[in-house]
Amino acid sequence: MSETTIKNMEEFSAVSGISRPTVSKYFHDPDSVRQSTRQRIETALEKYDYRPNIFAMNQNRKLTKNVGIVVPLLADPYFAEIARNLEQRCIDAGYRPTLFSAHGDPNLEIEVLENLRALKPAGVLMAPLGRASHRAALEKFCDDVPTLIFDSSVDELGLAFVGSDNFQFTSHISDYLCRTGEPPCFFEMKTPANPNAHRRRQSYLNAMEAFGHEPQVISIDGEGWAFEEIGRLGGHEALSNKQFSTNTILCSNDRLAIGLLTACYEQGIKVGRGADCAIRVAGQDGHPHSRYTCPPLTTISHDYDAVSKHAADSLLAAIDGHVEPWKSTRIEGKLILRHSA
Amino acid sequence: MSETTIKNMEEFSAVSGISRPTVSKYFHDPDSVRQSTRQRIETALEKYDYRPNIFAMNQNRKLTKNVGIVVPLLADPYFAEIARNLEQRCIDAGYRPTLFSAHGDPNLEIEVLENLRALKPAGVLMAPLGRASHRAALEKFCDDVPTLIFDSSVDELGLAFVGSDNFQFTSHISDYLCRTGEPPCFFEMKTPANPNAHRRRQSYLNAMEAFGHEPQVISIDGEGWAFEEIGRLGGHEALSNKQFSTNTILCSNDRLAIGLLTACYEQGIKVGRGADCAIRVAGQDGHPHSRYTCPPLTTISHDYDAVSKHAADSLLAAIDGHVEPWKSTRIEGKLILRHSA
DNA sequence: CGGTTTTCTTTACGCGCGTAAATTTTATGT
DNA sequence: ACATAAAATTTACGCGCGTAAAGAAAACCG
Questions:
Q1: What is the pLDDT of residue B1?
Q2: Tell me, what's the pLDDT at A320?
Q3: What pLDDT, in 10s, does the model give residues B8-58?
Q4: Are the CB atoms for B336 and B173 separated by under 8 Å?
């Protein structure tokens, strides 16, 4: 490594003895230049360690290799996990992903989209906040940038939607619960941030009707994204008031279930499927943490791999010109039996 | 909002009737132009909704308002939480934070730094991976960009270090445990990714010596960042082999403790400080999830606010020219008593 | 009102790189 | 060795904006 520091492609082309346009071509695709010049460039590269400025590169490019990934809340390990998964797939496909979080704030969400524009992304993978999202701003963005929506559907928006089959989720786990014990009550937030919650409630109602059981929905108060605390407080209230008509509780999502488990613990109520247990609790999502609750949480898990693969593949295909009419793909979840139910 | 879409500052200056350099000045600081021209610009802004391209802005600026935030692993809610905290502080101070994660991979860590360079950040807040970080690359980066290290110290690197006082953490919680029951065993990973772990072990040894107790360190196998699973598996092994000489276990961090709690549950061992409990378990970190374990985890918590405030303030002060000699600031943790110990 | 200061406008160049067109050099084939 | 194709070089302009300098216009002030 030499001392003289290279600050731009001009200088690098000088020390490598290759013209700048050719160097530029090399960085765009090393195979697009003659083998001998590639060698000369790479020799100089070892000696001088120069890297093109990524933002200047994109400035005047027709098609960039940038992909934006937007999630509603990075502090939720579920989104962190799926975002990481998507990032890796983009990298493997030769793209440059950049991750953004709306941090639960719809204003930040559109702020993020505006900044994303400047990146001139070839495409965007976006999980909207849901109910709170500014619909008009989203639409405008999707008109300009190829955007695939995942996790939380906003109908007919963007290139397509890929997510989990929430109806199947709830019907499947309801089915399991009904067959193995008392029929479940449904534990949810009154005003959920995410539209998937409504599908799950409806699916629960359907399932109960199919089984000929009386459904019972407990909708608790709470705003924001602190689901565990909302579940814990709501759980305490529901337990104290004996609102659960059976010994089985199906939660709208795992984070709520985690809070409910804590409430049960705090009231000395033993959870599980053993004879000595008072109630059964199940969640939905396959949250990364659900394995480590006590008792470990029975849940129905997103197929992280399938969702992220389908989402990434669809977007990259669209970028390559294989645009198809809008469609919604919903992937089935896998029941994960653990001790809680 | 008009139909004609503005794509650059040139066009916007045309429709607003103000020259481009003045418009540029306005976006740099709205107060730097005459009130009447500010009005004209803002009127046009409402009508045409234009936003300067953030990357083109930075391209030829002497001092940008960009701040990079780099954490080792966003999937860990602890880092997600502190990153969010730092982001907010930067925004409040008028800076534009951009968040990056090394995803536990030292190669990605330097990759991130290289990309960060192109952003021409005024400063960077960085939590290094620790042991695995490529020291030389970090140093080179810190030479070029004002960088404040947080969470995990790399001695004398960057502008300064801000983090928690790990010695105080462990000595404080050890003290509590010793005074309220049997002295703790120390449960840790054999080859921890983070150097803080060594300080905690040492502090435990010191504390036990001070109390006149025989220390006992259980170092379990495991590589990577899946601490809960490592703690669970290691916990099972240690419990089965009766490696814990007392009924109290202090874990090197909360995630390990969460895994250990699961292992205890799976072996039917009741955790807590009640008379009917077999062992006590405590963690360290004040992990966002520690409130919701069963039993809720007694831990010693980072002072998230103080750490992030001190880190952000120090960096921003340095950016403003108030550079001080390198120093290390370690902030005390707060004991959080819950049911597990 | 003239003089002074403040603020704009004009003009021009720079950032680091993409990209197109014309030209020259190098490789390939027979 | 020659024609031909392939690849590199030169030259020039563009992206969207920062920024500096000089002059014109507007505001302030006694």
A1: 54
A2: 87
A3: 999 999 999 999 999 999 999 999 999 999 999 999 999 998 999 999 999
A4: no
- Contact indicator for B276, B210 with CB cutoff of 8 Å: no
Of A53, A77, A264, the CB nearest to B118: A53
Distance in angstroms (rounded) separating the CA atoms of residues A301 and B241 = 34
Which pLDDT tens digit goes with each residue over B52-88? 999 999 998 888 899 999 999 999 999 999 999 999 9
CB of A49 within 8 Å of a chain B CB? The answer is no
Task: Indicate which CATH number applies to the domain containing A286.
Answer: 3.40.50.2300
**Which one-letter amino acid corresponds to residue A94?**
G
CA angle in degrees (0–180, nearest 5) for A148-A153-A154: 85
Name the residue range of residue B194's domain.
Answer: 166-301
Residue A335: inside a domain, yes or no?
A: no
Residue B312 lies in a domain: yes
Same-domain status, B230 and B314: no
Q: Closest residue to D15 by CA to C1' distance?
A: A60
pLDDT category at A55 given cuts 50, 70, 90 is: very high
Percentage of residues of chain B with pLDDT beyond 90: 84
Say which nucleotide is closest to residue B20, CA to C1' distance. Answer: C9
List the Cα angle B281/B283/B288 in 5-degree steps: 125
The verdict on B330 touching A (C-beta cutoff 8 Å) is no
CB distance from A80 to chain B under 8 Å? Answer: yes
Residue A2 has pLDDT above 60, yes or no: no
Q: Is B56 on the interface with A (CB under 8 A)?
A: yes
Nearest 5°: phi and psi at A284? -150, 130
How far apart are alpha carbons B4 and B24 in whole angstroms?
A: 21
DSSP 8-state assignment for residue A333: P
- pLDDT category of residue A295 using cuts at 50, 70 and 90: very high
Q: What residues contact B300, with CB distance under 8 A and at least 6 apart? A: B169, B170, B172, B173, B282, B284, B285, B286, B333, B334, B335, B336
CA angle B198, B204, B206 (to 5 degrees): 105
What average pLDDT score do residues A168-176 get? 96
Q: Say if residue B207 is in the same domain as residue B196.
A: yes
> D25 C1' – B36 CA distance, angstroms?
14
> Does residue B183 sit in the same domain as residue B288?
yes
Question: A55: which chain B residues are within 8 Å (Cβ-Cβ)?
Answer: 55, 58-59, 118-119
Distance from CA of A58 to the nearest CA of B (A): 10
Q: How far apart are CA A44 and CA A22, in angstroms?
A: 14
Strand ranges (E), chain B: 66-71, 96-101, 123-126, 147-150, 160-164, 185-189, 217-220, 248-251, 280-282, 299-301, 328-331, 334-336
Same-domain status, B204 and B80? no
Whether residue B3 is predicted with pLDDT greater than 80 in this model: the reply is no
Residues A234 and A282 in one domain: yes
